[in-house]
Amino acid sequence: MPEVKDDFELPEEVMLKISERPENLDKVASRVQKYDFKKKFNDFREGKKLLVLDIDYTLFDHKSCAERGEELMRPGLHEFLSVVYSEYDIVIWSATSMKWIEAKMAELGVLKNTSYKVAMLVDDGAMITVQDEEGHVVRCKPLGVLWGKFPQFSAKNSVIFDDVRHNFLMAPKSGLRSERLEKHTKTERQTGNC
User: Fold this and answer.
1) One digit per residue, pLDDT tens: the chain, 194 residues?
2) Helix axes 12-20, 22-34, angle to 10 degrees
3) Which residues have a Cβ under 8 Å from the Cβ of 76 and sit 6 or more positions away?
């Protein structure tokens, strides 16, 4: 069994090779056919670009000792989403189950905000595994699944923000790594001194 590595940095040329491998493209094509986009809340708007956002450590500090959504969310989250909504359709994609995505988005007040609309939620079922040049196997969020299902989007008009760089291995030129959101240190979490 190949070694599994949590996160790593790869040069862009290696990332491009991974995104062009036939076996990886076949996995993307399979997800386009099989993944059920059942959590589509709003239609995509004509002429808008696509913004895909991760949840854990990007929008939400899920290991914080905080108890309320406003304490867990990235500062300025609603203001940011309100501004980008004029140019982008917003998709939330997390490497977890839909149950937890919905719970976190409800806690943050993202799905009922009147200043912007989230088009869709995507869960871990749309992810694929890829193997790098060193044999490490990682799961990633291939934007090609969205591009295959919604052809108005492509590498030319899409961006994904995620704190984990390997999540955009299949779309290396469309990914932007966000600074990891951690409101409390590991020691504070372990001792309960948040």
Assistant:
1) 445 444 445 555 556 688 889 999 999 999 999 999 989 999 999 999 999 999 877 777 655 555 655 666 777 889 999 999 999 999 999 999 999 999 889 888 999 999 999 999 999 999 999 987 677 898 999 999 999 999 999 999 999 988 878 788 888 888 767 666 554 444 443 444 44
2) 60
3) none
DSSP state of 120: E
Distance of CA 105 to the CA centre of its chain: 13
Q: Check if the beta carbon of residue 57 is closer than 8 Å to that of residue 180.
A: yes
Residues 6+ apart with CB under 8 A from 43: 119
Q: Could you tell me where the DSSP H helices lie in 11-76?
A: 12-20, 22-34, 69-72
Tell me the H-state helices in 35-128: 69-72, 77-84, 98-108
Q: Strand, coil or helix: what is 160?
A: strand
The token pair at 165 is 């760089």
From CA 111, how far away is CA 165, in angstroms rounded?
Answer: 26
Collapse the DSSP code of 107 into the 3-class scheme (helix H, G, I; strand E, B; otherwise coil) and give the result.
helix
Distance CA 127, CA 141 (A): 5
60 backbone dihedrals φ, ψ, rounded to 5°: -150, 130
